[in-house]
Amino acid sequence: MRTLAWTLHHNLRWRKVLAITLFGLKCALSAALAWQVAYLIAGKEAAALAAVSAVIVLQATSWQTIRKSIERVLGVFIGIALSVIIVHLLGLSALTILLTVFAAALSGLLFKPKGAYLATQIPISALLGLVVGVGEESYPALRLLGALIGGVIGTLLSLFLSPPIYAQKAQRTLVNLLEEVAQTLPTLADTVGGTVACSRQAAIYEHMHAVERKVRCSERELALGKENLRLNPWGRALQDVTENQPYLLEALEKVTRQMERIAWTVQATGQAWNELSSLHCWARRYAEILRIMGEMLEFVAERVYVITQQAQSQSAAWEYPQHSEEEAFAQLAQTQERLKEEEDALLEEKEELLIPVRNVPQTTTRASYRAVVRSSLLMDLRRMLDELEDMLVAVRQLQAG
């Protein structure tokens, strides 16, 4: 997995540079083409407005560019229409400006649910139509024409110069997260097994919390990767892989949440945890279950990476290590059986504790506390294992598709 981690890190770095360079190139080409087209149609004034619009509407993905182009054209049209109508009816004065901006602001609030940029363009275009349009009567029409030409040029270039960089980056981010969580599970297993000093339990809990927060924070990046494939003719091969991405991330987030809960349980027990783990074999058995989960999660990370590489290279000759998949599902079945045995054993102990006796000794009270701790840990382990099973099934279906 170290080689995989280095490869992913290296790919992410050069793809980030490529994305920045390509975006700058699209801005330059859009401005130049929009200026030339508008200049040939309506002259220098329209050309300048078209070049500005082409640069403004360009966004990270084609879908975002299309949305902003539509919002800009509609915003300019509504704002210009308001200014022209009010000036035509009432003339130009301070009162006219007040009424125009007030009406445009209300219109912006009305259209805000449809798009934030649309809402801001309406009052801006209305005010510019009033102020600039006094000295240049053709300005309203030129502004609308410039917005239309710039939006069309920017959209076309965004469609044809938008390789699925963000989708590929999102896939690598997902693999990185899977790998990081898989590498964190042995540390959590050591903590549960009692081989970690009490002074480090708080730090390990904070680390688990940081991993869980990192998984949650990656949702925006993965959503951008999925959006990068909308109306993108270059990213169809990644479409199926990206569709399962939110599902895998959701399952991974649930796994990390349970890991955080387990670390909190150990930390809350404090000094007594090392005593419990040293006196009772169940803590070491739980730790072993966590290590096996880490191996299964490593398998998921490797398989998602291989599927992504196959989709990008569009190679039908990619060979999958079928024995690895069989071993992963065999591990899953064995771990489910082991966890069921642990749950049954705890249930028997709980039934013994419920037998009413007089003068309950201190040892029984401690046994009750151990039962509560074990019950919490087993519940978290069961939830983690259920999520891992869903991830393994999702990866198998993704590979078959």
From TrEMBL:
Location of the Integral membrane bound transporter domain: 34-155
Q: Where in the cell is it found?
A: Membrane
Domain of life, per lineage: Bacteria
**Where are its TM segments located?**
46-66, 73-104, 116-134, 141-161
Cellular compartments per GO CC? membrane
| Membrane topology designation | Multi-pass membrane protein
Q: What keyword terms does UniProt attach to this protein? A: Coiled coil, Membrane, Transmembrane, Transmembrane helix
Which residues does UniProt call coiled coil? 325-353
Recorded protein name is Integral membrane bound transporter domain-containing protein
The organism's lineage is:
Bacteria, Bacillati, Chloroflexota, Ktedonobacteria, Ktedonobacterales
